[in-house]
Design a protein that fits this description.
Structural class: mainly alpha
Oligomer: single chain
Radius of gyration: 26 Å
Mean pLDDT: 69
Largest sheet: none
Strand content: under 5%
Number of strands: 0
Helix content: over 70%
């Protein structure tokens, strides 16, 4: 605030109540008082991408490259896949990807001013949802690698193949959202590992010879559940599990 403005403001404050405030002073006050606009979700998503998004995508891209190289070396892409082995392998990959994303989702030490503003104004849930969406976008890299390589080795149509590939990832991501909502940050890994390990043990006892007809419907229901859970998580205001 410069000296001329201070003098003009002091003269206006010292004036009698019935004395009109000069128009120039009102214009100066309006010019000085600029209302800062709240940052929207696009700013937050851009901030999340600069901090963590590219790291998650680079790590998942390396995992996709390693998966492709190992598959070519072992001739996995040319072999006939049974439904049971395909579901077990895809579930394992989806759960490993979810575990890979946990350190990125709760990396609060990387918060900058935009994230602090959003966490104060709208709660901690919105940054968590943004990070989850970045992790989910990176998983499409793995799914793309699988679709391109497994397509010739399975007797399914493209729709059936997409349903088989996406259902394990949708299940793992729904479970990850449940963990984010109900488990405290320090217990995330401790809660996720037994949950995923127990599911893999149960899958070994599942006997499936034909593709279930309700698999596309199950994929749609899982997508709806994931959207609803993201909405619930975005409304969360504290950095602790839901009560």
């Amino acid at each position: 605030m410069n000296r001329a403005f201070e003098k003009e403001l002091s003269r206006a404050l010292a004036a009698e109540p019935d004395t009109a405030v000069p128009e120039t002073l009102l214009r100066r006050c309006r010019a000085e008082h600029v209302v800062k606009q709240r940052s929207d979700w696009r700013d937050l998503l851009h901030c999340q991408f600069k901090l963590l998004g590219w790291k998650v995508w680079a790590l998942e891209a390396m995992a996709a490259l390693a998966l492709y190289s190992v598959g070519r070396e072992l001739a996995l892409w040319e072999k006939a896949w049974t439904l049971r082995n395909a579901l077990f392998g895809l579930s394992t990959l989806a759960m490993l990807t979810a575990l890979l994303g946990l350190p990125f989702l709760y990396r609060a030490s990387q918060y900058k001013m935009l994230e602090l503003e959003q966490a104060t104004y709208a709660g901690i849930g919105r940054p968590l949802v943004m990070r989850f969406l970045l992790l989910l976008a990176g998983e499409t890299i793995l799914l793309g690698v699988l679709v391109l390589n497994v397509r010739a080795a399975v007797p399914w149509s493209i729709g059936q193949l997409l349903a088989v590939l996406t259902v394990p990832f949708l299940i793992a991501n729904n479970e990850l959202l449940l963990l984010l909502r109900w488990v405290r940050p320090e217990w995330m890994i401790t809660g996720a590992v037994p949950l995923f390990a127990g599911q893999l043990c149960l899958l070994r006892f599942v006997q499936l010879s034909e593709l279930p007809k309700g698999l596309p419907l199950a994929a749609g229901v899982l997508v709806l559940c994931m959207v609803l859970q993201c909405i619930r998580l975005a409304a969360r205001s504290e950095y602790i599990a839901e009560a």
